[in-house]
Write a structure and sequence with these properties.
The protein is mostly helical. The protein has a two-stranded antiparallel sheet. It is globular, with a radius of gyration of 23 Å. Helices cover 73% and strands 4% of the residues.
């Protein structure tokens, strides 16, 4: 395992996809800091950048899927995985090393975003703009780490079981977008008001008519709302949007991410052990 990881980290340092992802996220972090500085300079708006440190949530799934499919797909196309097995490495260690490397890449991508945002923000606005409660900070850090692990488990599962790099890339990227769109749909459905607000209008005769609040037919009720609420907490896509916009709080999101990580990792290892690599 140590030899596999050592060789893998050497490849990471030279991987163009990883460097491109880190540069993109660093540019995004600086852009957010500049935008906050512009709002403060022009309009006097003093918004906290503490929450913005977790704006990577809506991008990490897409970038992780791209990196995983290309990084592990290259090992298939170059015959590296087969050579590892011939050299005596167990399939479980080959699979887990791929998962660890994917997670390490995701953490580097996140760190490049947060570090660039923090340094640019402090330089332009000062440290006071990053004020954030300790509990909120710890909760988001833990939830973000667990969410990244869940994404990496899903995309490692896809990349290790699909030998064609192009196919695994398409499946992985589509999966990341589908998860985000599904999360946005669930979030939108749950945010529907239970009643449409009442309003007042004046008739042609000048009579003032007050309309009572009306039930919203799109408001989710009963078992359907409970299901959507569970999926809102469970799915990585909705977690990503929540982390980016308002933060992830409570014990449910990291626990659900851990369940996803264990499930896909365990299932992936079992299937990879039986996979014909000839």
């Amino acid at each position: 395992m140590n030899k596999l990881l050592s060789a893998g980290f050497v490849r990471l340092r030279k991987n163009k996809t990883l460097w491109f992802s880190m540069i993109f996220m660093a540019f995004l972090g600086v852009s957010i800091a500049i935008s906050a500085y512009s709002d403060y300079s022009l309009f006097g708006l003093k918004s906290s950048l503490g929450g913005a440190l977790f704006a990577y949530g809506q991008f990490i799934g897409i970038l992780s899927s791209t990196f995983s499919s290309l990084f592990l797909g290259t090992e298939y196309s170059d015959g590296t995985i087969r050579n590892k097995l011939i050299a005596g490495h167990k399939r479980i260690t080959v699979y887990l090393s791929g998962l660890v490397l994917n997670l390490a890449a995701a953490l580097l991508i996140i760190l490049s975003f947060q570090l660039s945002l923090f340094l640019a923000g402090v330089s332009l606005l000062g440290i006071e703009f990053f004020s954030m409660g300790t509990c909120s900070l710890v909760s988001n850090l833990v939830s973000g780490l667990a969410l990244s692990a869940a994404y990496c488990a899903v995309f490692t599962f896809i990349s290790m079981l699909c030998q064609k790099r192009a196919v695994s890339a398409v499946i992985g990227i589509l999966t990341s977008f589908i998860l985000l769109f599904l999360g946005a749909y669930i979030m939108s459905s749950l945010s529907q008001p239970e009643y449409w607000d009442g309003y007042t209008l004046t008739s042609d005769t000048g009579e003032v008519v007050e309309m009572e609040p009306e039930p919203n037919p799109h408001y989710l009720r009963g078992a359907k709302r409970e299901l959507y609420t569970f999926l809102f907490d469970f799915l990585p896509g909705s977690q990503s949007l929540r982390l980016s916009e308002a933060g992830l709080y409570g014990w449910q999101p990291p626990v659900y991410s851990l369940i996803i990580t264990v499930f896909f990792s365990g299932t992936g290892i079992l299937l990879f052990k039986k996979k014909d690599l000839n």
